[in-house]
Amino acid sequence: MHNNYYFLRVLASTLRQKLMYARLKQCFSQEKDELVLGFERQNGEEFWMKCCLGPQFSCLQFPDNFHRAGRNSVDLFSDVLLAEVQEVEMYENERAFSLHFLGDFVLLFKMYGNRANIILFRDGEFQSLFQSRLKKDANISLSNLHRSLDQSWEAFQEHDGNYSALFPTFGKEIKAHLLSLGYENALLYDRWEMLQSLKIDLEDPTLYVYHREDGVYLSLLKLETEALYVGHDPLEALNALYKYHFSIGEFLKEKNQLLNFFQRAQEKTQLYLQDLLNQGSKRGASVPYEEIANIIMAHLHLIPANVNVVELPDFYRDSTIKVKLNASLSATQNAENYYRKSKNYAKELAHWQEQVDRKMDEIKLWEERWEQVYQATNRKQLKAFIPLLTKDSSQKVVEEIPFKVFDVQGWTVWVGRNAKNNDLLTMKYTKRHDVWLHARDVAGSHVVIRNPQQKVVPKQVIEEAAGLAAHFSKRQHESLCPVIISSKKYIRKTKDLLAGQVIVDREEVILVPPARMD
C-alpha cells in the first residue's frame, strides 16, 4: 500500500512540514530507474529523497545522507535547481502528489506502481519527464488530476452499498479487510458505518511493514502476522520497506527462483538418464552382433538371395532367430556388416556408460546446489548462483530469433527449422567462433552453440548439442548418430550449392544418442 492514495496523503502532509521553503540543491541519476533529489532546508539541514521507479518495484526512500558518485551520474531537471519549495500538493483521490517551486515549476510524483514517473511542468505546461519510456505521461494535465467524488450517505444509497464507485482508491488490501469484517453480508447502514470507521482510521493510520510469501509490503491495517516495522512516520516506514524489500523480499524471491531452477534441471537430467538406461536395457535384451554374424556364417546355405529377413537356427539358445539383412548384399557381406557392428559396439557401450556416469554426477550436483540454496539465510550465500538466473531469463531475449532456441547448461543453442532457415542461421547469424554441428551424411538441421565470449565450450555442452543435431535429422530414431562438429570459421557456401548445403573444411565426428524431446 506504499503507493496507495491514503498513504501518499499522509506522506505528502509530512513532506509539507519537511520541505516548505527548502531549496533543491541537487537532482541527478546514477542508477537506472533511480532519481536522487537533495534539498537544503531553512535550518541548513540536508534532506534527501531517493526515488526508485523501476517497472518491478517503485518506492521512495529518505536516507539521512547520500554521496554522489564521481562518475556515471547525470544532472536532471536542472531548470529547478536552487528553486525554493512553495507547496506540497496532494491530488484528491489520486496516487500522485507534487512539489511546487518558485518560478511556477511543478515536479509531479506519479506513483502508479510499475508506471511510476516524475514529470516537470512550468506554468502548467509539460517540460520533461524522468522515465522516457512512459511517453504518454507527456499528455498529463495537472488541472485534471484532482478527482472530486461524492462520498455522501445519499450517494452510497444510490449505489446500493457498492463502495467501489465512491472509494476507487481503496486498493486490494482495504477491500480484503472489509471482506474479513463481513461487509458483503452486512445491512446497508452497517456497511456505511464500517466505511466511516475505516475512513477515520486512514486519516492518521499506524503504519506496518509485513512480510508474506510474495514479498515485503507496507500496510495501513493491522494484521495477525508479526510486523517487521510499526510506527507513524511515513518516511521511516518507507525506509523500512525499502530495507526489508531487498534484505528479505528480494532474497526470498531469488532463493525460490534458484530452487525452482535447480529442481527443473534435476528433473530434466533424470529424464535424460532414464532414456539412457532404457537404451541400455534394450541393448542387454538384444542378441550380440558377433553371435548374429556367427549364425549367418554357419548357415550360409540356408540364406536365399535378395531377402530382407531370414529365420535361422540359433545354436546359442537352442531355438530359432529372425535376422535382418540388406537384400542388396550377399549373406557373407551381411555377416561382415554384423562383425563390423560388433567392433563398434564396445565403443558405443563405453560411450553409453560414460554418459550414464556423467548424468548421475549431474543429478548429484543439482541436488547439492538445491540443498545449498535451501539452507541459505542471506543474499550473500546466493551470490555464486545468481548468474544462473540471469542466463535463464536472458532466454526471453533470444526467443525472438527465427530459430528453435535451447538452453544447454547455460549456453544458448540455435537449431535451424528448414533448409532455407539453415542457410540463414549459418551464413547470417552465426559468428566466427560459434560451434557448428550437423548429423553426418543425412539431411537435418544446422545446430549452433553461441560463443560470443570465445570461451572453450565444455565437452558436455557439445555432446548435448550434438544430441539435438541427431534428433533434428533423419537419424533421430537410431540408437547412436554420428555428428559433425566444427567451427563457423571452417564453414563456407558456394553459389552452386542448394539451400541448406555447405562445405565443411575441418571437422570432428562424435557418436551420440539423439536427444529426447518430451
Automatic annotation (TrEMBL):
Q: Gene3D superfamilies from the entry?
A: ibrinogen binding protein from staphylococcus aureus domain
Annotated InterPro entries: NFACT_RNA-bd (IPR008532), RQC_Subunit_NEMF (IPR051608)
- UniProt keywords, alphabetically: Coiled coil
- Limits of the NFACT RNA-binding domain: 407-504
Coiled coil spans: 335-369
User: What superkingdom does the record give?
Assistant: Bacteria
Keyword Coiled coil listed? The answer is yes
| TM regions (residue ranges) | none
Instruction: Give yes or no: UniProt keyword Coiled coil.
Output: yes
Question: PANTHER family of this UniProt entry?
Answer: NUCLEAR EXPORT MEDIATOR FACTOR NEMF (PTHR15239), RIBOSOME QUALITY CONTROL COMPLEX SUBUNIT NEMF (PTHR15239:SF6)
| Stated name of the protein | NFACT RNA binding domain-containing protein
